[in-house]
Each structure stands twice: as C-alpha cells, then as structure tokens.
Predict the structure.
Amino acid sequence: MSASTTLRAVMGLDDRLPHLKDTTLVMIDFQNTYRTGVMALEGAGEALAAGARLLSAARALGVPVVHVVNDGGPGSPYDIRADIGAISGEVAPLDGEPVVVKQFPDAFHATDLEATLRTLDAGPDLVLAGFMTHMCVAFTAQGAFTLGYRPTVVAEATATRSLAAPDGTTVPAATLHDAALTTVGDLFGLVARTVDDLTR
C-alpha cells in the first residue's frame, strides 16, 4: 500500500525545513516528571540529550528561546514547585529566557505564550521539542498552526510512552511517537528527524 498525499501537499504548503537561525525555539515540558516514576518515558534520556544539543545550538546562534512547563498542582507528578516537576538541569532556562506555565496540552491555550512570542518579535517559524510527542508536542504544533505559525518538530528531541489501545492491545511508544509525528507532518507542521537537519 502506498502512502497517501499529505494535506500539506493538497493545500500547497511549503515543506522546506527552516534553518534554526531563522526560528524561535520552544522547549516543551522537559520536566523531571518524564524521567522517573509513573510518567517515565521510553527514550527520555536520548530525547533530553538531543534537546540539550538543540538548545545549545539555538543559543549559539542567538535564537530566541521559550521554555514551557506543565503545572499539575502541588503533590502531582507535574508540581513545578518540587523537583519532580522542575525543568531538567540539562536544558534549564538561562536568565532572560522566558518560562510559560500551562495546564493544557496546547501550550497556547490559556497561557501567555503567544504574547511572549510577540514580545520576542518571533517570525512564523517555530521549532518545537519536548515531551510528550503524542500529547503536548503534537497539540502545541496544532495550536501554532491554527494561529498562523509554521512549526517544526524535532523528532529526536521528543519522546512518549506505551499506551493501551481501545482494543486492549498495547501501542508501543515508538509506534505512538511515529504516529504523532506523522499526524503533525500531514498538516500542522514539519518534522526534522535530527537537530542537524536544522543547522546544515
């Protein structure tokens, strides 16, 4: 069976990857939440390492960086007041890098992310990385697209977890990861396989 034409192709949208230097980087939920305990992700360490490389490259190029964290409230795995909900040290914000707090998968919903991007004079191209691929990364890509941005998700700098399907079988993390990226690439944005794809 051959692959269907993407909605992006049907609509005539540009599929050329941006160069990192021409973007704004949005680091989504790189929290300790996903490294241990009930929400630990498969491949979190590798994705975090890729996220650290991406962040370092962006900073070296003078690219604006916005960090996003999910706040689930005190005592939850997403408690941003506790170590479990803190941004992992490898990608911790520097002074002057804004941090947007959200409570929904789409980082634009009921937050000041859009206002922050305007303050940074962000162009249409956003680069997204973080956790989880099928949830906050994919929904933020959709939100960005809806608002007129052109998001690019860096595949190696995202990860997710295995979940039960409606029929009771298990959807492996790698399959869910690929499905989420495929959904993004069908319409909402572009997918760069690696950090290097945006710096060549």
